[in-house]
Every structure is written in structure tokens, then in C-alpha cells.
Amino acid sequence: MSEVLGEDPEVILAERRYDAIARIMESAVRKEEGKWTFTDMLDHVFLHRALGIPIFLVLLWAVFQFTFAFSEPFMVMVEVFFGWLGGLAAAGIANPQLASFVADGLCGGVGSVLVFVPPIFMLFLALAILEDSGYLSRAAFVMDRVMYKLGLHGRSFIPMISGFGCNIPAIMATRSIESEKDRMITILVNPLISCGARLPVYVLIGGALFGAAAGTAVFSMYVLGIALAILMALIFRKTLFKGKPAPFVLELPHYMVPKAKTAILHMWERGKLFLIRAGTIIFVVVVLLWFLSVYPWAATNGGEIIENSYVAGLGKAIQPIFAPFGWDWMTTVAIIFGFLAKEVVVATYAMLLGTGEEAVGDTLVSIGLFTPLTGYAFMAFVLIYVPCVATIGAIWRETNSWKWPVFTMVYLTVLAFVVSGLIIGIGRLLGYT
Amino acid sequence: MTDFDIGKGKTIGIYAAVIGVVYLVLGVIEVFGGAGDVIPGDLFGGLALVVIAATFLYGIKSTFDGDHKGLSFLIGGLFLSAVFGILYLLLMGADGLMFLLGEADEFSVLADFRPAIWMFILSLPLAYLARGLTKDVTW
Questions:
Q1: Interface pTM (ipTM) of the complex?
Q2: Which of A49, A389, A395, B131 has CA atoms 20 to 30 A from the CA of B92?
Q3: For B58-95, b where at least 16 C-beta lie within 10 A, e where not — what string?
Q4: Residue A145: its pLDDT value, please?
Q5: Residue A237 scores a pLDDT above 60
Q6: What are A96-113's pLDDT values in tens digits?
Q7: Taking an 8 Å Cβ-Cβ cutoff, which residues of chain A contact chain B?
Q8: Would you call B31 exposed, middle or buried from its count of C-beta atoms within 10 A (0-12, 13-18, 19+)?
């Protein structure tokens, strides 16, 4: 049938279904005489077969340019504040261990994560504007054709976009997918969508290594995540969950001019999760990291000689696994603690490098921890490898089995090694170091 | 039967064609490395300009015929033009703020005045003309 029709019969059926809906609407809904609406007009463009996807991609790129470049001065302001606070604590507390804990642990560690509040809130604001305008459901619609051909359900795209905020509600949102196979595939690939917690890592490494092209480097991580999610969905469809995706019918809301108050509320609802994490899990991990990086107190000379710390011992023991990528023990530690929460990767560097928030990126470059090639491979690794522990918990709850969270961790770790290895290998072949 | 006056459609169509072609030329120049400070090289920024150009150019024939679908593409192009024009204006503001904070060595309005901004300004008369044809259109 596909050969005769030149198109997948399911796609033709979906189109016929929409035609039927349009005919029913025509006879049942009365519009003002001879008038078309802005919604009709914009849909001609945004749902266009050829232009729809390029428009979606350039809008997504604009979102990340806005997120990265516009938030820069606000990040500087937060950096200056925490730098000042750390200096104040270091100078004002007599007990050296307590001073180190407050200045390096709290201000340095938690502060280095809070520096990324501006880009995260900007990202959520931009996504809220797209959502409130009615565009995001169009994005799901235009992606449906591609997704269907690749074995994913069109409805899967909405949880995938929600994943830009946080993978946990995105995984919970898969409950709206009726077909169990479609739902399972969407759950398993969702951790590949870059959540807000990965953004600080991209901004830190991208900003330090790629200068004016940092926004594009960050954007490329989001595109890489979507591409890998689609690729893995295709593989799962051909192997674990054989069959065709269920047909996709989506009600498209009218376009509207987003209201500032609603967009800000949406931004706050999503962004506050980041603040809560900074005050809970990140705080606890940072305290643990501080302890491991300054003790044994005498051997590290009060945290001055970090090479003698417990954390250095841990990192050096595991580092050989990452040696082919050119990553040292500090990066190894960042990867290990990043499993608890991805933002901790940034806090780890701030603490291990012993610099203020404003200097972490520059120090990463100046001490030669990364080249653009190894840094880019690291960004990809952080994108792909084991999602945070809370996401693993969400997968367990939604699948009601330990089998799938374990499977997710294994396949993502293998994929992270493969993709980062390919980036390093291809980069070296092209002459990059 | 046409959706709007063909004479007005031709005026708007010609303006959109010019804007579309200029967007296309600028986009291609940006993709292939730019030309001096005025048109800096920017792969994705250039591709965005090419997509805006394609949106404008796609609707020209229908606009000439007085079909509202043609006008749709012009409005879509204007929307994208506004998104990128405002985006680069915000980035210019951010660069200025970085300079005021002492994080940037210099701030040049001319260097930050990217093609997407001046094309947005040049497309505003088109928005005014299109507004004349869509006064009664509701959301």
C-alpha cells in the first residue's frame, strides 16, 4: 500500500481524519461571513509541510540564544553577590573549618549553582511564552509526521518538550498516551531531553570554551538530545516494542497574545523547582562534597592541597575509565556526583577548583581541564549519561518495575560513552586536540 | 473571488518580495562567514534569516492573486522578523549591561546592530500595510 500510495497508509488515514474533522467543523461551526482568523492564517505557515519544521528549529534556536546571551549580565550580578558574601564569611569567621564550610562550601558550592538561576528562569519564560501563545501544540503537530515515521507517537512530543523543564513531570505526563508501547518508548527516551538542571553545565562549559558561539553550542546539545531520543525510539520500536504507533489526533488551541502575568507565573512554577532543589538535595550534596574535599583536614592543609583529599582519592581511582576522553579526576568526581543532581557538576568544579563563581569557567580553561573538543564531549556525556536519581525514581513509579529504571541507566551510560567517544574520535580525525 | 483587493495585494507582494530577497542575501552571507562588522558570520543566525526569507517569498504569488493564504505567509514572516529583531535588540541591551558591569572591554552599538534588527525595522511598513488588510480579522 505504501508503494502504491507513495505514503504511509497511517499518515494518509490521519490526514483523511483531519479532512473529515474540517468538513464536520465547516457544517457545524458558523464563522463570521467570509472572514478568516489569525489562527487560520498562522496555521497555514506554522503547520506548513515544508516550512513548519525549519520554523520550529529556528524558534528553538532563538529561545536558547535568548536564554544564554540575555541572562549573562544577570549571572554576573549573582556571581558578584556570592563572591562578596563568601569574602565576608571568610574574613569574619574566626574558626578556619567553619569559615571554609561557609565560604567554600555554602557560598562557593550552592552559590555556583544559584548563579544559573537567570538562564533557567529565562528558558522557562521563553517556553511559557511559546506555550501560552498556542505554538507548542503546533510544534507537536509538525513533528508528528517525522516522529510517526521514526516510530514515535506524536503525543510523545509534548512530554519531550516538557522535559526541557524537568524530566520528572515529563515522564508523569506520559500517562496521557493511551498505547502502553508508545508510553513506554516515550518514558525510556525522555531522559535524553535536556532538562533545566543540565543547562548550568552547558552554560558553564559552553561559555568558557566557545565564546560568541556558546549559545549555538548550548542549542546543539538540545538538538543532539532530541535526535538521540528519536533514534533510540526508533531502535526500541524495532526491537522491544514492535508495532505501529497509535494514530494521533490533537486539538489545537487558538493562538493568542501571551499575557505577561501568566507567562511569569508559569516561569515561576517551573523555576521554583530549581530553587527547591538548590535548597535541598544540592545543599546536602554540596556539604558532602565540601567534607570530602577538605578532609583529612591536616593532609589537605585545610582544603589547600586538594590532591590529598578523600574526593581526589575517589576521583583518581575511577578516572582511568574516562582517560581516553582526556578528562581528569575532577571531571570524574563531577560525573559521579552529577548522578544525584546534574547541577552538582557545576558546584563540584567550583569547590574542587577553589575559585569564586565568576572564575570557574575561566579556570577550567586556564588549567587546561578541557579543550573545546573534550569539553564538547563532556557536555554530550552530561546530556546522555544516567539521569538524576529523582528521574530514575519517576521511571520506577511510572513503570511499576525496577527492570526499566535499571535498563534506562545501562543503555544511557553505554550511549553516553559511545557518543562522547565518537565526538572525540571524529574531532581528532578532523585535527582537533 | 479574491479575499482582498488585488491592487493592494500587489503592493504588499512587491514589498514582501524585496524584503524576502534581502533577508535571503543577508542570511546566505551570514552562513558563509559574514562580511565585515556590519554582517557578522553566524551559521544559525544566518539560517534563521534564510527561513524568514523563505516564509516571505512563499506567500508572494498568492498575495498577488488576492488570496488570504499568501497574506498568511507574509504575516508569518513578519512574526519571525519581529522575534529575531527583538531578540537581537535584547542581546544588544545585554551587551550594554555587560559593559556597564565592567565585564566587557568595549560596547559598540554599531557592531551590535545586527542585520536582523535593521531588517525588522525595514519590515515595519509591511506590517502597517498588512494591518490594513487584517483590521477585522479576529484570533
A1: 0.93
A2: B131
A3: bbbebbbebbbbbbbbbbbbbbbbebbbebbbebbebb
A4: 74
A5: yes
A6: 888 888 887 778 777 777
A7: 32, 35-42, 44-46, 48, 51, 54-55, 58-59, 61-62, 65-66, 69-73, 76-77, 80, 216, 219, 254-256
A8: middle
Kindly determine whether residue B94 and residue A69, on different chains, have CB atoms separated by under 8 Å. Answer: yes
**B130 Cβ contact partners less than 8 Å away, ≥ 6 residues apart:** B12, B71, B74, B75, B78
Q: How confident is the model at residue A248 (pLDDT cuts 50, 70, 90)?
A: low
Q: How far is B91 from chain A (nearest CA, A)?
A: 5
Q: Is A401 helix (H, G, I), strand (E, B) or coil?
A: coil
pLDDT score for A107: 81
Give the total residue count for chain A.
433
Gap between the Cα atoms of A23 and A309, Å rounded: 72
What crossing angle do the helices spanning A180-189 and A389-399 adopt, rounded to 10°? 170
Report how far residue A397's alpha carbon sits from residue A145's, in angstroms, rounded to the nearest whole number. Answer: 30
B35 DSSP β-pair partners? B39
A45/B84 touch (CB, cutoff 8 Å), yes or no: no
Identify the residue with better confidence: A270 or B24. B24
Among A168-177, A283-292, B60-69, the least confident range: A168-177
Q: Where are the domains of chain B?
A: 6-133
Residues of A within 8 A of B52 (CB-CB) are: 58
Contacts by A237-240 with C-beta closer than 8 Å and gap 24+? A237/A150, A237/A151, A237/A152, A237/A185, A238/A151, A240/A184
Nine-digit cell string for A231: 533514534
**CA separation for the pair A192, A174 (Å, rounded):** 15
How far out from the chain centre does Cα A26 lie? 42
Q: Using only the alpha carbons of chain A, give its radius of gyration.
A: 24
Domain ranges of chain A: 4-46, 49-429
| Cβ contact, residue pair B101, A76, below 8 Å | yes
Phi/psi for A184 (5° steps) reads -60, -45
Which three cell numbers mark A141?
503537530
C-alpha cell at A74: 544577570
End-to-end CA distance of chain A: 51
CB contact under 8 A, B94 and A255: no
At A34, is the pLDDT very low, low, confident or very high (cuts 50, 70, 90)? low
- Taking the model in full, what pTM does it have? 0.76
pLDDT digits (tens, 9 = 90+) for A140-176: 888 877 777 766 666 667 677 767 777 887 787 777 6
